[in-house]
Amino acid sequence: MLRVAEQYVGTDTGRQRRANEDSMLARPPLFVVADGMGGAQAGEVASRLAVESFQHGLDDTMDAEGSLAAYARAANVSIHELSQANAEHAGMGTTLTAVYVGAEEVAIAHVGDSRAYCLRSGELLRLTDDHSLVDELIRQGKLTPEEALEHPQRSVITRALGPEPEVEIDTCSYRARAGDVYLLCSDGLTTMVPDQRLAEILLAHPRLRDAGEALIGAANEAGGRDNITVVLLRVEEVQITASSLVEGPATLTGIPALPVDDFVAQPSPVTSPRRPRHPSADAPPRAQRRGRLHRAGTAAIVLGLLAFLGVGSYLASQSVYFIGTNGRGLVTLFNGFPYELPGGVKLYSKHFVSGVSASSLSVGRRRTLLDHSLRSEANATDLMHSLELGQLE
Architecture of 2-237 per CATH? Predict the structure, then answer.
């Protein structure tokens, strides 16, 4: 199973722009870069709206490509509607490149001329195609890559989020390998630094923070004509074993299963040395009917009580959270109570899946974090974010 072992996120206004219209999201295993356009503050608004559409992350059971595309389409609707309703935002749009690191594959959704690359075995592989006029001409054989560098319309993009009510989203998935380094960036980097130089910088700086700062520095040294955003992530292989997770029997989320007797009231047996048979076995027919009616009434009361408790429990569960693990061993935030009733009825649901494997935590941290204590949403979310940033004490 793969996880994000190291990451870097950096952005710079560049040397020729007054404002930064790029936005990014780094919430392992999800990463997003957006480069806004539209002038004034419109581009900044468009890129921010695009990134905000991804803020809830993906459930690891989802179709990654389909989910990324759905988020992108939702962002397109939000940006387009705002541009139509507000004259200050008219014509605004944004590029988008989103990457999700799954257990074995990396899924990508892409619109515009921001890019995604993979550095593997010393070779830099470009994973996305620019939706730009010059790239279209290159693909048609009407322009060489060298001519494209100085083409007067090199900044014209042919597809973006926002300008139209609907947009086509490019999606793809790649089989990932341990040690892969993925680069997401706005065109403020790639218009200033050629691919060969990108590879040289990444290979010369094994530490991602050093590599990211060197990439931004190289773009500025080349002129820094646009905003520069760089997101880097390295993936590694993690072996998940039962002993690496929280001790004791567990359900899908690492939540200890409670015995059936904790939830179902069992009738006390009636024993008598003189009458080992059922108490009503020798009763007359009328008494037997009264017994059946009594039992039916009791059952109805019990069912009604259980239904009432069920509704109350559901309402209460919406305001409490706890932290556990999912089926892949990733630390996960759940909404509800950490219990599963007989018949597979769960009192919880997934709220957010992190990119951190429980096996990577020390025993003390696992016991503290994964004890299924009930928490407020703010407290639980802060713990998850601190964990992702490697700041959990």
Answer: 4-Layer Sandwich (3.60)
